[in-house]
Amino acid sequence: MTVLSWLGFAAGLVLVLTTLASVTVTLVVPRGLRSRLTNAVTAAITGGFRFIASRRPRYEDRDRLLSLAGPTVLIGLVISWVSLLYVGFGLMLWPFVDSFPGGLTVAGSSMFTLGFATAPGAGPTALIFLSAAVGLVVVALQIAYLPTLYSAFNRRETLVTLLESRGGVPAWGPEILARHELIDSVASLPELYRRWEEWAADVAETHTTYQVLVLFRSPHPMRSWITALLSVLDAAALQLSLNPLTAPAEARPLMRMGYMALRELAGVMRIAYNTDPHPDDAVLLPREDFDEALEHLESVGWRIERSADEAWVHFRGWRVTYERIAWTIADLVDAPPSLWSGVRHQFGTAGVAPFRPPHRSPMSERSQVQAITSARRSVRDGSAVPLLRNIGGGRRRGVVRPPAFAEAEDRADMADAAAEEPAD
């Protein structure tokens, strides 16, 4: 036994303890902690993927390549942990087998349960049993980690996928409001906001505990969890700004939970942000883009309760709380280049408008839908007439209609008839 071999023993002990600390922090501790080893492996793998992806001009090609980054990080972490433990235990066995290669042979035989090499003595035997147990535990923890990881991923992607029918793909906040207006489903927005408030809380918990989830991409190249959250926050902020009298109460809790989730993510991703933004602070979104969104909403019949100037002041006050963090995360993960989601500095991708499916109704498109929507609203605003209408299209027999209900029902008939007339 030489002094050098015992120095190797000390170095091996430090290496094993450091690796076990990294495994514990990454896989066991339910908190937004991260070890330097995990950070180094993640940065090296993602940096390599981003370097290769930067050589591909088409976004779909980059997305296909970057979709491998998250799973590769998981594999890279296991390989790194097992390799470091193997070297660490080899160094610790060095004083008992007279050479470092001999220590690696004994450590490998025990860690991989081969059993072809051993060393005599109580000390080496204890190290051999310890190395075998540690190797199995690390692999078992990673295997047990995967179901939890993919369960959180599936919960995240369910609402992201559902948003495609409500906000287009890639998602855009004004498009969410416009589509609900077109199909006369504005009344369902409170439920949408409530579900996304819960979704934001779940993402804040899972993506800070299992931080590799940030790198996991949606199955569809133009869908992303970060642009989806940004679009829903923009939709709620727009409705609060444009409709202070009729905006649902569920919009405000969503806004708070949304920017709280983004701040927690910014903390673990080491993204700098203003902890106390002022409503008068500047935002990155140009005023011209906001005005274009208002024109889009007005074109589908959205009823605005504020002037554009007043609405912009309030919208800016909401958006300043989450814009920079959301844009930075979208840039880091190369999210789909949706409108209002910022630029992708490494790839230089411009904003892409949401895809709108073609209208398949055998009638004039927008004017006919707006006429039907107006007819339905006139009924709802007048009285509870739909309860008096016959399912078969006529009137219920034996029902005495109050004069107010009768008048409202007649208006509804006239409105439906007008809606069914072809537009000019």
Unreliable residue stretches: 383-406
Q: Topology as H/E string?
A: HHHHHHHHHHHHHHH
Strand-residue proportion: under 5%
Determine the fraction of residues in helical runs and give it as a percent range.
55-70%
User: Main sheet?
Assistant: none
Q: Any idea what the radius of gyration is?
A: 30 Å
Q: State the end-to-end distance.
A: 98 Å
Structural class: mainly alpha
Helices, by number, come to 15
Shape: elongated
Number of strands: 0
Mean pLDDT: 84
Note down, in words, how this protein is organized.
This protein has 424 residues and is an all-alpha fold. 65% of the residues lie in helices and 0% in strands. It has 15 helices and no strands. The protein has helices spanning 3-28, 36-53, 59-66, 69-97, 100-111, 122-167, 173-182, 189-209, 225-242, 251-268, 287-299, 308-319, 323-332, 365-382, 403-420. Helix 5 packs across helix 6 (122-167), helix 9 runs antiparallel to helix 10 (251-268) and helix 14 packs antiparallel against helix 15. The N and C termini lie far apart (98 Å). The relative contact order is 0.09.
